[in-house]
């Protein structure tokens, strides 16, 4: 009985290993799978304007990331199949093979690069310092000895400590609370990504502004499952074609350009991850 059970377990293990080997082989050629099925399953966030959000009139998902997914799919010669995901799920969905590509405000970090493969960075958001317009503060040096608020654990906090070491960085659990500290005079500066901070400036009636200087640029890219070199190369080729043709610039102008409430220039063009 024992011998029979052991044999059964060995057989089961053999089948499982074979299944994993087969799955690995299949995933190693995901580009061919995409071409065969005729669709690129691309994940974006679902409520992050202007990257990916539902148009209130049509209820369709629109935004810069959605347009990027559609353009990459077109360059691969297939149709886009859009899948909304949460911030927490975007990397696991790639790992589980449920999506082919992630375009979801995916900032490049070395830690994330250990889990997924990054394409070239197709845009970089400036990290800025916001101050009261009537504060007399016009440059980073004016913040020496003053307090700068930031979202705890955020990249603006990290780069503020590096760029303005003479200032005291005070952190909060979220950006609205950090902005509240600035508006109540408990801090004289507020560090935040420009795209996220625009609404605070726009809704302040001119009371707050960004300083002209930039703390750093946060590189953002698309995510591909590790072990898919053909797909990674094909997406990078598509992005390079989109850069050369002006598609990336046109999409950026549509969602972030001077005719939008963001008015953020695309200072950084397509950049290989190895060059960051």
From TrEMBL:
<comment type="similarity">
    <text>Belongs to the bacterial solute-binding protein 3 family.</text>
</comment>
<feature type="signal peptide">
    <location>
        <begin position="1"/>
        <end position="28"/>
    </location>
</feature>
<keyword id="KW-0732">Signal</keyword>
<dbReference type="GO" id="GO:0006865">
    <property type="term" value="P:amino acid transport"/>
</dbReference>
<keyword id="KW-0813">Transport</keyword>
<dbReference type="GO" id="GO:0005576">
    <property type="term" value="C:extracellular region"/>
</dbReference>
<dbReference type="GO" id="GO:0030288">
    <property type="term" value="C:outer membrane-bounded periplasmic space"/>
</dbReference>
<feature type="domain" description="Solute-binding protein family 3/N-terminal">
    <location>
        <begin position="39"/>
        <end position="259"/>
    </location>
</feature>
<protein>
    <submittedName>
        <fullName>Transporter substrate-binding domain-containing protein</fullName>
    </submittedName>
</protein>
<dbReference type="InterPro" id="IPR051455">
    <property type="entry name" value="Bact_solute-bind_prot3"/>
</dbReference>
<dbReference type="Pfam" id="PF00497">
    <property type="entry name" value="SBP_bac_3"/>
</dbReference>
<dbReference type="InterPro" id="IPR001638">
    <property type="entry name" value="Solute-binding_3/MltF_N"/>
</dbReference>
